[in-house]
Specification:
The complex is a heterodimer of chains A (268) and B (244). With 268 residues, chain A is an all-alpha fold. Chain A is built from eleven helices and no strands. In chain A, α1 packs parallel to α6, α1 (8-32) packs antiparallel against α10 (213-238) and α2 (36-55) runs parallel beside α4. Chain A is globular, with a radius of gyration of 18 Å. Chain B contains ten helices and nine strands. In chain B, α3 crosses α4. In chain B, the strands form two sheets. Chain B has a six-stranded mixed beta sheet with strand order 5-6-7-3-8-9, sandwiched between helices. In chain B, strands 2-1-4 form a three-stranded antiparallel beta sheet, covered by helices on one side. At the A-B interface, α7, α8 and α10 of A face loops of B.
């Protein structure tokens, strides 16, 4: 078995599928709750996490996870205060990216491959990265399936969730934490810039094909996995950057799904 | 019979502001009570305090132990990107048996909607589905927060009639908030006029003619009484009513 993992392409494919499986169900909630900017803010804050991790000699995964969780909870807190959300999140998303980049530049003596963090470096995934990715993906899938029904009703109506004895803020926290895990895990694969794309494009592509929330999450996971495999092959044969290629393939599937849906509607 | 719940000298503060002051309100089993009041008068806050979503600053709220409350929220916006059927919606977060789902859908006049996508429902259908959901588990108290938002006057009149019919069928008490004074008064046993505190309360005819009520809603609502009487007469022609 282990000789399989010696092949960089197999490691990259497994990494891509691991991230796809975690990002897809969470991405459905990001779409249902209109949290795309929220994803951006959390993902862009990851660069700051990278800078802090390198400055304090911590693992990048831990640094990114910590800063992303802080960002996600900060944004959640602010969202209850009547700020104009899109403006606020736009400010937070880009400010955290900029501050992160500035912070990285202060790290004299450390050579940082910034491009790897911005756009991912999936072909350089090692066996230990794989362990982190699949561990994180398993945690995300476990958290979301455990809270699935509660998350669904809290997404539809916080009031009904509360009337049913649930705490919608706690469910929001579950989503914030899983989002931070996905960001930390996906950093190596697609980089901070494209994490939101990996969250929302498969979910959006799955929407016209699904009639239940579960089906949408499963189809999104399938689409994201196909995009990971297809994007890596494209990268291999056309010598294109891997992360952007994965997102490009996901986008093509999204277009195909839209065309299929409108074709089906016109036949009805 | 003891009341389903009773508040005494209840005050609620939200974001540092006193929203409700010294509210004394109780509701008897099977009673339909409507709270009317201008925007920002604390109507929704009062309902949320009763369902336990907000804790009072002072005073007491005594709820009969084990009281089952069915809650119909002010509005529900389900993003069209979320595919979910009515049947599934009823089973969130607690699974319900199919015959129970059919029973509440029939009670709320929403039969046949079970397999529909929530995002495909019209405003009136959505209200009925929300009402059906609140009827799950046979509540003794139904609480409705501006449940007719987005319905036209004929639609909301039909909805309030449905509420009154359901009360007659299952015997639950109903506590609702409305800004539609004209329509809502017809089906209420008691009207509470709220503006941070209870201004006046009583039989709809009494409240409609009370000076406090006139002061809040102006003389433009003079027609409320006439319409109320008209609707009331109509109700007495109703076969269910004469049988009682």
């Amino acid at each position: 078995m282990s000789f399989l993992l010696d092949d960089f392409l197999i490691r990259a494919t497994l990494a891509g599928i691991g991230v796809a499986l975690a990002a897809a169900p969470l991405g459905c909630f990001v779409v249902w709750r209109r949290m795309a900017y929220f994803g951006d803010a959390t993902a862009h804050a990851a660069i700051l996490g990278v800078a802090l991790a390198l400055a304090f000699n911590l693992s990048v995964f831990i640094g990114v996870l910590t800063v992303s969780i802080l960002m996600a909870t900060l944004v959640t807190r602010l969202s209850g205060r009547g700020f104009a959300m899109d403006t606020l999140l736009g400010v937070m998303a880009h400010a955290s990216l900029a501050i992160g980049l500035v912070a990285v530049s202060f790290l004299s003596g450390v050579r940082v491959d910034l491009m790897a963090f911005l756009f991912g470096d999936i072909l350089a995934v090692g066996v230990s990265d794989l362990a982190v990715i699949w561990g994180g993906a398993a945690a995300v899938i476990a958290l979301i399936s455990w809270r699935w029904d509660a998350l669904l009703i809290a997404t539809m109506s916080p009031e009904l969730a509360r009337a049913g004895g649930l705490d919608p803020e706690r469910e929001q926290l579950v989503l914030s934490v899983t989002l931070a895990i996905v960001v930390a895990v996906a950093l190596k694969v697609v980089g901070v810039i494209l994490i939101t794309a990996l969250l929302i494009i498969p979910a959006a592509a799955a929407r016209p094909l699904a009639r239940t929330p579960e089906a949408m999450a499963l189809i999104a996971a399938l689409i994201a996995s196909l995009a990971a495999i297809g994007g890596l092959q494209m990268s291999l044969w056309a010598d294109t950057p891997a992360g952007p290629s994965i997102v490009t393939v996901a986008f093509c599937i999204f277009i195909a799904s839209l065309i299929a849906a409108s074709w089906r509607r016109s036949r009805r | 019979m003891s009341p389903l719940f009773q508040t005494k000298d209840l005050s609620v503060r939200l974001d540092g502001q006193i929203v409700l002051a010294h509210v004394a309100l109780s509701i008897e089993p099977g009673e339909i009570v409507t709270i009317v009041g201008p925007n920002g008068s604390g109507k929704s806050t009062l309902l949320r305090t009763i369902i336990g979503a907000i804790s009072p600053e002072s005073g007491t709220l005594n709820v009969r132990p084990g009281l089952k409350i069915g809650y119909v929220p002010q509005k529900l916006h389900i993003d069209p990107t979320l595919p979910v059927t009515v049947r599934r919606f009823l089973s969130l977060p607690v699974k319900v048996a199919s015959d129970e789902a059919d029973r509440v859908l029939a009670l709320a006049g929403a039969d046949g909607l079970s397999g529909k996508q929530m995002s495909d429902l019209s405003g009136g259908q959505l209200q009925r589905v929300l009402l059906a959901r609140a009827l799950l588990g046979k509540p003794e108290l139904l609480i409705l927060d501006e449940a007719t938002q987005g319905l036209d006057q004929r639609g909301s009149a039909a909805f309030y009639q449905l509420i009154a019919d359901i009360r007659d069928d299952v015997g639950c008490a109903v506590l609702m908030v409305s800004h539609e004074l004209h329509v809502v008064m017809a089906s209420s046993d008691r009207v509470v006029c709220l503006n941070g505190h209870i201004c006046c309360e009583g039989h709809p005819a009494h409240v409609a003619s009370a000076p406090e009520y006139r002061a809040l809603f102006g003389t433009g609502t003079g027609g409320a009484l006439a319409l109320y009487r008209h609707e009331h007469d109509h109700n007495h022609d109703h076969p269910n009513e004469t049988a009682e």
